Every structure is written in C-alpha cells, then in structure tokens.
Amino acid sequence: MRITEIREKTASIASPIANAYIDFSKMTCSVVAVVTDVVRDGKPVVGYGFNSNGRYGQGPLMRDRFIPRLMEADPATLIDEANDNLDPFAIWDTMMKNEKPGGHGERSVAVGTIDMAVWDAVAKIAGVPLWRLLADRYRGGAADDSVWVYAAGGYYYPGKDHSQLKAEMQGYLDRGYDVVKMKIGAVPLAEDIERIEAVLEVVGEGRRLAVDANGRFDLATALAYAEALEPYGLFWYEEAGDPLDYDLQAKLAGVYSGPLATGENLFSHQDARNLLLYGGMRPDRDFLQFDCALSYGLVEYLRTLKVMEELGWSPRRVVPHGGHQMSLNIAAGLGLGGNESYPDVFQPFGGFADGIAVENSQVGLPQIPGVGFEAKSKLIAVMRDLA
Ligand SMILES: O=C([O-])CC(=O)C(=O)O
Ligand SMILES: [Mg+2]
C-alpha cells in the first residue's frame, strides 16, 4: 500500500466581502488529492482536502517541501500495520522532517491540507465515514448523530445596508440556524452598534447573535466594544485583538462577563496551550475555534485536544472555524461543541452534504466512506477535476 501521487491546485474563493482586517477579493485555497494504489470498487482510493478561507493557497510550500518528502520516503515507513492502512502520524512526521519548531505560519496550512486528504483516504480505505473511524479509535465508539452549527456571515461589502444585512440573517434563520454571526470592527463603534441592533430586530435576542472583530482591536478599542456589547448578552464576542496577544485577551476576560471566542489563528498545540495558560479564557463559558485545516491537520489537533484536557477544558468548548466537513467529522467523532457554517459564502468549499438540511441548528453527517466530499456534488466536481 502506498501513496502514488499528491496533486495540488489553487482555486479562487474570491468575493467582494470584507471583515475588519482583510477583504476577500483575491482569496484562494489549495485543493489537494492524495492518490493511493489501494483499489476500492475497481478504482484507486483518492483522499481529498482543502484549506479553510483566510490563508490563501499553499501550492508552492507543498511542492517545494511537503509533497517531495512524502514521495521520497520509503512507502513502508508510512503504513499503519495494525490497521492495514496509511499512517497519518508517520506521514505527518515525514512531512515535518527538518522543520524547526515555532513560527507556525503558512506551513501549518500546507501540512494541514495534505493531512485532511490523508485522513479522507484512511477512512475510505477502512470503508467507513471519518467520524465513525474517529469515534471508534478515540472515543470508544460513541459518535454524535448530529452537530450543532451556526451561520457565519454578516460581512461588510460595498453598498450593503441594514436591510440587506437583515435579509441575509433572516435567510439563515429560514434555513434552520438558531445562531448567526456578523462581522464588527471595520467601522466606528456607533455604526457597528446600529448594525447589531438591526440584526437583533431579526434574531430577537442577543444570545442568538455572535460578533467577530477578526483581531482588529487594540486593547482600548477591545474594552470599549466590551462595554458597549455587554448589555446585549451576545452568544460570543470573537477575536477582539491580535491572535497572539494573550495579555489583551486576558484583560478583556477580566471585564467582559459574556462568552468570548478565539483561536482560529493559532496554528499549533503550543500556541493553544499558551492561550489557555495566559489568555484568561474561562472553561465555563468561552469558546475555542482552532481549525485543523489551518493548524497542521488532525494529527496536531489530537495534540491540541490533549492539551485542553490537561488544562481542564472539555472538548465541548471547541467550535472550530472554517465551516468545512473535516471539522464536522471531528466534531461528531470526537465530541466537540459544534462547527461553523457559511451558508452563503466560500462556496463550494463551505457547507455540508447535499440533501442534509440544518434543523434546529443541528446538521447530520453522510454515511459514506471518508470525509463525505462525494456527498457534496459541486465540491467533489472540483476535486475530481484534480484527480
Ligand atoms: O472572515 C474571516 O476571516 C472568517 C472568520 O473569521 C470566521 O469565520 O470566524
Ligand atoms: Mg473569526
């Protein structure tokens, strides 16, 4: 059993939307195919992956370093003998050979995307959905039947007024979501408060609305927003300051009584540990948003979950960023608290299996082998185009 080829192509996910930090007018993502010589139903098993929005395609890093390391390795060293399958852990170690520690930047996205494709292949070789494989290997077989999801959107874009923002949010409620998320921080506080009040007219209560500042604020601005947001009783206040500014996060947690969320831009278990040790995050109410596709994949995610456990955090406090099926599988298989969803943006990469509707903010998973990409027709068309 061996990997015969790994292909990457960079796809556009450009759109006119913006958060408080970036616009998405040139946004791309990598699509990866890991081709194996294992045959199922008369065809070679191919595992697929892609990276979440926000960090661009990683083709050059993959082609320069990570794909050659895997293709040059003795195939026997990449096998999990006990399970008669590929070994995602050995594959990870091989990709990361001769990489110094620290500085977890774009390389974690390149590795995380290939890792997603490896796990898709592993579950396909095992002939089971990935959530089932994860539950069997790591949770004594217990899998969640459905996963809580919330609708993320509420972006800024040219000409978007309150009526369009409200219509967007109404559309999410109509499609079965109970909680919606909107962007803040690209306009002055008073203007954001007007936007928030407009959305509250649609969703009714603050506990059905999360807000996301995408790391834009300095301490003074983060605290000013905290004071203004506190009375609304929001679902969460996300990524107020720079992702690595644990001091800001801790000071914010010291004054804001409602739930805080962060972590989508922390790309290693060491960074996650530092957040939990020094960021003032509160295990009884706050949310962690680590995204496997950006942070070295599921192999590293298992380490991050272990760090959380050691520091007294339940996996239910994790609601990953990214709105992709990989995190949905991890959520169902490893018992996370939920998953993000982008019903209207980042298509065809965002979203879940065709024909599985969101009801009461819960979504089910397909019963097919792998991550489930084959159950999402527009996405699998892009992937099959690659291999
Ligand atoms: O706008 C983005 O970069 C995406 C994001 O933060 C989120 O989904 O939480
Ligand atoms: Mg965010």
TrEMBL record:
Residues involved in Mg(2+) binding? D212, E238, E264
Q: Which residues form the active site?
A: K183, H321
> Where does the record place the site Transition state stabilizer?
N53, K181, E340
Which residue positions hold the site described Increases basicity of active site His? D291
Q: Please provide, alphabetically and separated by semicolons, the GO molecular function terms listed in this UniProt record.
A: D(-)-tartrate dehydratase activity; metal ion binding
Q: Entry cofactor note text?
A: Binds 1 Mg(2+) ion per subunit.
Give the domain of life. Bacteria
State where substrate binds: N19, N53, K100, Y155, K181, E238, E264, H321
Required co-factor?
A: Mg(2+)
Q: Where is the Mandelate racemase/muconate lactonizing enzyme C-terminal domain?
A: 162-259
Q: Does the keyword Magnesium apply?
A: yes
Query: What keywords were assigned to this record?
Result: Magnesium, Metal-binding
- Name-wise, this protein is Mandelate racemase
Protein species of origin: Acuticoccus sediminis
